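Dear H.,

Thanks for agreeing to be a second pair of eyes. The structure we're designing against is below in token form, covering all 210 positions.
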């Protein structure tokens, strides 16, 4: 199966009431596309990070009442899981597609990662594109455009990652629902390639890969 792009019906999944009904639609409409993206981009990420990558499509298995508000495929260097590691994500909310480098709250090495990122803050601040965004919580849609942040804003976000138990830090790019549904498949794949290339240095810093 080739990736066919995201359609309005994919985004509409997150407006379906009830856990069972939403999960049924998610599994039918979105999960096959995420699986294809996982197969497609795992080798790409292995190349740009110099680290083996495994794709993990979100299962939402722990949910018993609340239906998921977003879904994704994640990439990490462990075949058994990704949440405890620096990783990458491609996914969608009902409003947009996200493409992230992510360190979320389950990662036990957050203080060490924050220290490494802080040491490289000048390079990070200069090289991340201005239209990329940062997030402090993967469970919320709120994000901060890199071009509107001062270096001290970014430093505070990175330091918070190392100091606050539940803190997270994500960096990447968002594509609005309207843009994504009208986008050529090849154009979408090129954008993801470009985003991963731009955030791969963050992964290498986080993992201490030279």
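And this is the sequence the design step returned. I haven't edited it by hand at all.
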């Amino acid at each position: 199966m080739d990736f066919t792009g995201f359609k309005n019906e994919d985004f509409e999944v997150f407006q379906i009431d009830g856990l069972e009904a939403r999960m049924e639609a998610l599994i039918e409409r979105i999960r096959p596309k995420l699986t294809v993206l996982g197969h497609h981009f795992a080798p790409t990420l292995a190349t740009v990070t110099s680290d083996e990558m495994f794709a993990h499509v979100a299962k939402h298995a722990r949910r018993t009442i609340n239906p998921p508000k977003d879904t994704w495929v994640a990439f990490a260097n462990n075949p058994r899981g990704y949440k405890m590691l620096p990783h990458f994500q491609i996914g969608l909310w009902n409003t947009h597609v996200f493409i992230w480098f992510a360190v979320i709250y389950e990662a036990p090495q957050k203080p060490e990662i924050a220290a490494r990122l802080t040491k490289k803050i000048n390079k990070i601040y200069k090289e991340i594109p201005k239209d990329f965004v940062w997030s402090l919580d993967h469970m919320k849609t709120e994000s901060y455009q890199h071009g509107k942040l001062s270096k001290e804003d970014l430093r505070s976000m990175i330091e918070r990652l190392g100091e606050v138990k539940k803190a997270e830090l994500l960096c990447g790019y968002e594509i609005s629902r309207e843009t994504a549904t009208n986008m050529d498949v090849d154009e979408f794949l090129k954008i993801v390639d470009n985003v991963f290339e731009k955030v791969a240095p963050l992964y290498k810093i986080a993992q201490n890969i030279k």
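Two observations from my side: Strands lie at 54-57, 71-76, 87-92, 96-103, 133-135, 144-145, 169-176. The two ends are 36 Å apart (CA to CA).

Warmly,
E.
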